[in-house]
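Predict the holo structure. Ligand: glutamine.
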Amino acid sequence: MTDLHRLSVREMAEGLKSAQFSSRELTQHYLDRIAKIDQHVKSYVTVTPEHALAQADAADGLLKSGMAGALTGVPLAHKDIFCTQGIKTTAGSKILDNFISPYDATVVSKAKAAGLVTLGKVNMDEFAMGSTSESSYYGATKNPWNLDCVPGGSSGGSAAAVAADLTPIATGTDTGGSIRQPASFCGLTGLKPTYGRVSRFGMIAYASSLDQGGPMARSAEDCAYLMNVMAGHDQKDSTSVNKDVDDYVADLNATTVKGLRIGIPKQYFNVQGLDADVKARVEESLKKLEEMGATLVEIDLNMTDAYVPTYYLIAPAEASSNLQRYDGVRYGYRAENPKDILDLYKRSRSEGFGAEVQRRILIGTYALSAGYYDAYYVKAQKVRRLIQQDFLKAFESVDVIAAPSAPTTAYKIGASLDPVEMYLGDIYTIAVNLAGLPAINAPVGFDANNLPVGLQLIGNYWSESQLLSVVHQYQQATDWHTKRAAIAEENA
Ligand code: GLN
């Protein structure tokens, strides 16, 4: 079969169970596609063919013996922020270029236990700091819809790999939009779960109070399958929440769009820099949901102006603390011939970290320093609480909140080099992380340049099932999620 990559995850799992094809064939099919197509997309940092085929053979054994789980033998790619035992984990940074983790992240061990086959590790902005994937030490990943454009970030490798059919599903992480925005730029579905739903153990830390892993795939249904694997309490992560996990696949039809109250924040649709095509496509998708029985309710989110300054204080503050551990002593890049220990620290960090990471460490260190701590960091935490309260108030009158995922579609590689401009592009995603809420991106059409537009739906705490279900029903009634970039139509 030459078109295995066009199957949904459910169809893949069914095909494996009914022995229409083996996991080895399916895995080899993706490895062949990666070998042929990824030179143009550059989504993978590390491809692991031997490891993948060994996992595939093990999966085929389980499938034959009737011991297979729901996803046994289905391939996936991990964002290179999840530690993988025996396989390099770089977080897109030179400082971790030689790092091989002695253990698996919980998300990785759960994927293994579910019988998923790891094709490799995919590219990302350095330490997940960015919105374009250009800050990776391994170079920029290209957007499959237009190879001159960015795929978004920081989970740009995950998004590009799925959009080019170089993996059916991928893990991502979202600290301020890094699942939703690349999903939006690449025409995919991506879910950022409630803070605490997916374990952060073994996920390289950027800003620990905001970081959350989640699934990226073509459809809500595919995401639900991966979410069933990723979600759950983990004693190794003290912020993981001990709460029953939904069956996201079984719940795909649990919420009806009929009667759903969708909040439309007035402030969000008047943001300066909101592209006219993005606005139009998002409004059309809301109209469609209205036709399907939803009610649109105008709401106020008065703290909108505070999102970017608050996030860009708290995230760098936490990053500056988390990144202290890269000192050239214990692991990672070490400067050559240091004069003394200070010289070792200084040069290892100056040579090992890229410009954007250094900028954030400086901002964060400044914000946390004695004398400025109260004026910046403590104040930002107070504003963060007000942002959360703004959402909770809105959820008293609506079930979900709609927004674009990003103010624009994908832009040209090299176009966003002014950092403040890039930060402003995060306006629609970062408040969700500050509040710890779940949110999903769904593809809802294209702009005049045939680049995908995404709708974001923000839910109340623990409403992942509801978000996936609403998007699933939208996707039953529309076909935007089935559209493929030309490069994905190429056969290996
Ligand atoms: N673009 C945002 C940032 O640079 C979000 C990144 C992320 O979610 N990891 O911080």
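The mean pLDDT is 97. The domain at 4-255+482-489 is CATH 3.90.1300.10 (Amidase signature (AS) enzymes).
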